[in-house]
């Protein structure tokens, strides 16, 4: 069974641009969540989707958005990029949104560098 | 607000020595706690969770509500335990009426454990 797949693996953008990251969950998993990982802030929750609905959102500005498609694949978009958006963006999937009972499976991440 | 604190960024021990990775949390309700691990060049993965009361790879963690701690312990460290360890929390306020959380994990800053031969 393939794991969580994130594309692209690396991305370099300049300030002011926008970027779209993609996440394909494990087959059969319907919950997808996104996290930002930086050396200074560690891992921070961005948002979580289940059945194409955003169920929870972290404390990030509106420039960060996401969506989930009917096949459970998810995308996140960051508009008007800032230097501080440089980070590793991790996607995780699980069968359901009940994270206390369901194991989260993480992807390898997309490393975004904003110049 | 919920917060997870891992006071040690780096922890070094020798093989065979006991190891304890500290985790303290701040949350007004009843949290569920987890330890995640990331080995070199591997993905972040769940190590163990409080509700399962399990022992994985010799690691255990006990929730101490009085001290608001969830320290990870292993009596005899192995070189293959070297990794980055994250403590994480889901607060009960994430639960809907049906008792299902929404997957909003709050992570600590992480502790890099190095086990020397």
Word description of this protein:
The complex is a heterodimer of chains A (115) and B (117). By secondary structure, chain A is an all-beta fold. Chain A has strands at 5-7, 10-13, 19-24, 31-38, 42-50, 53-57, 64-68, 74-78, 87-94, 105-106, 110-114. Chain A contains no helices and eleven strands. The mean pLDDT of chain A is 92. In chain B, strands 2, 5, 6, 9, 10 and 11 form a six-stranded mixed sheet that branches. In chain B, strands 3-8-7 form a three-stranded antiparallel sheet, with no helix packed on it. With 117 residues, chain B is mostly beta strands. Chain B is globular and about 40 Å long. The model of chain B has no long low-confidence stretch (mean pLDDT 87). Chain B contains no helices and eleven strands. Helix content of chain B is 0%, strand content 40%. The chains are: A mainly beta (115), B mainly beta (117). The A-B interface holds A 3-4, 31, 33, 35, 42-45, 48, 50, 55-56, 58, 90, 92, 94, 96-101, 103-108 and B 32, 43-46, 49, 51, 86, 88, 90, 94, 100-110.
Summarize the structure.
With 115 residues, chain A is mainly β. Helix content of chain A is 0%, strand content 52%.
State the order of secondary-structure elements of chain B, H for helix, E for strand: EEEEEEEEEEE
Helix/strand structural class of chain B: mainly beta
- Number of H/I helices of chain A: 0
Number of strands of chain B: 11
- Count the beta strands of chain A: 11
Largest sheet entry of chain B: 6 strands, mixed
N- to C-terminal distance of chain B: 41 Å
Could you give a short account of the major beta sheet of chain A? 7 strands, mixed
Q: Tell me, what's the shape of chain A?
A: globular
């Amino acid at each position: 069974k393939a794991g969580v797949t994130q594309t692209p693996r690396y991305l370099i953008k300049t300030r002011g641009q926008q970027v779209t990251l993609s996440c394909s969950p494990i087959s059969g998993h319907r919950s997808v969540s996104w996290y930002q990982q930086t050396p200074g802030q560690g891992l921070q929750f961005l948002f979580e989707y289940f059945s194409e609905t955003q169920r929870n959102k972290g404390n990030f500005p509106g420039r960060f958005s996401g969506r989930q498609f009917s096949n459970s694949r998810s995308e996140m978009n960051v508009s008007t990029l800032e230097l501080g958006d440089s980070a590793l963006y991790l996607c995780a999937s699980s069968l359901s949104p009940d994270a206390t009972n369901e194991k989260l499976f993480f992807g390898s991440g997309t490393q975004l560098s904003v110049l | 607000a919920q917060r997870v604190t891992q006071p040690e960024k780096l922890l070094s021990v020798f093989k065979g020595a006991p190891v304890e990775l500290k985790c303290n949390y701040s949350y007004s309700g009843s949290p569920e706690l987890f330890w995640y691990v990331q080995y070199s060049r591997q993905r972040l993965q769940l190590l163990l969770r409080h509700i399962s009361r399990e022992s994985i790879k010799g690691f255990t963690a006990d929730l101490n509500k009085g001290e608001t701690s969830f320290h990870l312990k292993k009596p005899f460290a192995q070189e293959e335990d070297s990794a980055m360890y994250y403590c994480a929390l889901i607060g009960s306020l994430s639960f809907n009426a049906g008792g299902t959380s929404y997957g909003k994990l709050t992570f600590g800053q992480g502790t890099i454990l190095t086990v020397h031969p």
